[in-house]
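Suppose you are handed only these lines of text.
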Amino acid sequence: MSMLGALAVAAGFSMFAAPSAYAVEGYITAINLGGTGVMCEPRVGGSIWPVNGTNAGNARFFYCGTSTAANRGSNVYNSAKGISSLESAVGTLMTNKNVKVYVMDSPLQYATASGNNPQTVWNAQVNNPALSLFTADGDPENAIIVYENVANPAAGYPNVMTNSSTLQAHDTKHEAGHHFDLHMTGTRLSNSTTYKNLYPDDVAYSAANNPNHATQYNTTFKYWWQNRAELFAEEFAIVFGSASARPVDVPTSTYFICTKAFVFGWGRNQAAPSSYAEPHCTPNTP
Ligand SMILES: [Zn+2]
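From them, the structure of the protein bound to zinc ion can be written out as follows.
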């Protein structure tokens, strides 16, 4: 996706308090997003992605915001660690692909870090409090960026407002879903023949059973339900414990049964399900 294309939307639950074993190495300029001048603090010394680096050079979690609280960045790193804890193979995959996680103050800081025009970034990220970068798309790094403050459209550029801890955590998982989608097999699972076969089964099931389908599909949840990559990433967040962070999540779980089962299979077993419980799921029939 483009630099601003892989926008997130994901949430979760914190599985750990911050272990005292974390080493804090002070703020450094160890950032390679194409711009300059952003100081970030690596967090290393944990046992699982993204805090399983041993020094600033191989760190995968960076806090770039303004908080001085001891648990700064914890909304994001606890959410990411929750993925590794629930499914170590996914944490290993993220480690092997060197997927870095940055907690940034706001889109304005990301603009500085990436060398992009701040107003362009601010405009692009209204309603999108996180994004992903992919080296496969020409980006400098595989990275997840989550904001502590997001664009405030009511107040206008360059104003920002607090991003909730729930959405920081949710977006982290959603963005990890975009990386899993690409990195698990090297070709996007959301673009696989099976997922493409299951998707219309779910849309038809929702149309037949969901009294709010038309409005949700065409308007409210269009961002997720009419874009397979976004649906996959949201289903990944749901599968990894972010079950109701956004209004789209419960109806997705209720009606997008086949594609969610596919994501569960890959996410938790690293393979497509051997069977689908619902008879309307026809993975092998276009
Ligand atoms: Zn997304």
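What can we learn from it? The mean pLDDT is 89. Residues 265 and 271 are 6 Å apart (CA to CA).
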